[in-house]
UniProtKB/TrEMBL annotation, chains A, B:
Function description: Catalyzes the cleavage of L-kynurenine (L-Kyn) and L-3-hydroxykynurenine (L-3OHKyn) into anthranilic acid (AA) and 3-hydroxyanthranilic acid (3-OHAA), respectively.
Encoding gene per record: kynU
Known pathway: Amino-acid degradation; L-kynurenine degradation; L-alanine and anthranilate from L-kynurenine: step 1/1; Cofactor biosynthesis; NAD(+) biosynthesis; quinolinate from L-kynurenine: step 2/3
NCBIfam families in UniProt: kynureninase
Residue numbers bearing the N6-(pyridoxal phosphate)lysine modification: 213
Subunit and interaction comment: Homodimer.
GO molecular function, one term: kynureninase activity
Protein name in the entry: Kynureninase
Amino acid sequence: MTRLRVYDDTRALFHLPDGVIYLDGNSLGALPLGVAERVNRVITEEWGNELIRAWNSAGWYVQPRHLGDRIARLIGADAGSVMVGDTLSLKVYQALAAALDMSVSRKVILSDTGNFPTDLYMAEGLIATLGRGHQLRLVAPEEIEHALSEEIAVLYITEVDYRTGRRHDMAKLTAKAHALGIVTVWDLAHSAGALPVDLAGSGADFAAGCTYKYLNAGPGAPAFLYVAPRHADGARAALSGWMGHAKPFAFELAYASAGGVERMRVGTPPVLAMAALEASLDIWDKVDIKEVRARSLALGDLLIGEVERRCPQLKLVTPRDHERRGSQVSFAFAGGYAAMQALIARGVVGDFRAPDIMRFGLTPLYIGEGEIVRAAEIVEEVISGEVWRRPEYQVVHAVT
Amino acid sequence: MTRLRVYDDTRALFHLPDGVIYLDGNSLGALPLGVAERVNRVITEEWGNELIRAWNSAGWYVQPRHLGDRIARLIGADAGSVMVGDTLSLKVYQALAAALDMSVSRKVILSDTGNFPTDLYMAEGLIATLGRGHQLRLVAPEEIEHALSEEIAVLYITEVDYRTGRRHDMAKLTAKAHALGIVTVWDLAHSAGALPVDLAGSGADFAAGCTYKYLNAGPGAPAFLYVAPRHADGARAALSGWMGHAKPFAFELAYASAGGVERMRVGTPPVLAMAALEASLDIWDKVDIKEVRARSLALGDLLIGEVERRCPQLKLVTPRDHERRGSQVSFAFAGGYAAMQALIARGVVGDFRAPDIMRFGLTPLYIGEGEIVRAAEIVEEVISGEVWRRPEYQVVHAVT
């Protein structure tokens, strides 16, 4: 397989609209050029002509595992330990449910205020369903390590903070958690495809992530779930659907879970979305994630330097330290919502996260130094030129 | 909106491969011609050019509700009571969890042995998670009415049996259930798009269905969930994801459910799959489901008559009574697996369900009398001609 150089070879494999500098690939990745044709082929040839037979003939049935194996390479997981399907909310739910089952005498789920809210909401729902007095304890991200104790059942956190881009030390926290008998569940939403993850090496127990951000698989693309091989044959699939049954097509009345991570499948997998993910992974298969990381850090340093030099009003909230940073750069600014509207109107697409965070995603497969410098110039125009104060940018929209 | 005549106008709106008589639309519906273009537009124009902005500009965010409203018309539900997303396994899980919460003092979930297994498996998983001594009681489908009692918390059944095509009387069972204080959860997998359903009129509490069978939205297309409006503001969303939050983009740390059925959303909706569903519903919007039903019953009567006349070896397991029948015809035959392989090799695509059921789905939008008679001729050739005994048809494949 020919290696692709990050950006130099990969930029041409994405569609980006004219006049746009897209710094929101950490929310929705850009479109890989191969997606439209792949999805069209699945629709017209596989669905259209093979019809029901395509579950076998086109491999739809086994695709969640095959795609999981391709993602595994990017997150330091063994083949056979990652399953694709559903949404990230549901996959963290499955992971948390299995983790709590492994630690029945403890009642505290430890998370932090930098975790993405849906993870916290799903945990609340699970706690209510369990009805056994579990507690979701939230501390500030920098207090997580200190808050680990023998009272904690599960450490349940997102590696990279969606607002600040601050990165937890997965190896260190996992080791400390294990020393205290704590099971770990990692959300990799802002890690997979953003930086090298070493699930096997760090000893993480469970992890989940999405594929529509850095993995570029499209809006609403499926999630993935990692279960450490040592747990996979014992973990309970709380969402125990027929595709995770040991013999799904025997149509037995009683549930019996499949071996390994296969049990974490639930219902019928999303074939069209998996086709888009396949096409996207065709690029990722040929890329070195370490090269992506090096480029991302360089782009981040460049953006920080350019913006700080031009706009002292913007306060950096992303750690400068490479080890502690994900693949985005965020600034706090009281007029952040309006400023982001003004930037978007000028083609610089980042996003805003309440209460005051302007967030810029760095996706080296299709963003280079030139775009970063040009984006910083426009940030200067909007901020220092006070463009953001214009009334048309003050209107708050319903959803972002 | 111009009304489309069933088959006469709708047949030309589907792609069906040459040489195939497709009688498996109750497993995976055929491809509507509009799908490929619609999905391609969403990929290239919306995702490709609008990128993250498409969540607003292209209406992705509100689509689960809009699509739900279009499905509502087909199942006798009020606008605003149906939400699209996830998979049927997950939607029946949400419905069952909410239903059990409405009936805390009772511990029995009543279902039948004709329910699709994933519903039973999901219930088993929920019972284990709840850990409160609930019991899943299974009776034969014909015993369901008699088994209703004040001990039952939730009646949890599929209206049309996936093997036999036997249809439950939703209005009667719901009325009797309610008289006994039982909450009802209906699985409409083989009902939506197959026959008129009257959720509001029958007083059903919860219902869920899929869109990849009779609704023709493609492999792995999303499911839908109905919550009776009288319950919608009180029902607990056990799978409480951020899209079901009252203010998803406020990113609050604590969960607060959205009003109405919106709370049953979980994670990011599957945009590409929703585009296919949209294109498929463009046909359904213009069709009278009562006309579909009349055609389906006529096709079923024709198939039963033709097959029984030609092949007395095949034993009809579908009720002859129109009121008690869904939109498929099934025969028991000891050599059913091999016979279905032989039929498929001759272009008659039905499917096999263990232990001995040969199943033929009737989808009047794209199947007419001519195909039914021709299929019966080929069934005769395979069965009476003993073609099914040939060794090549005895090989059992891994999945169907």
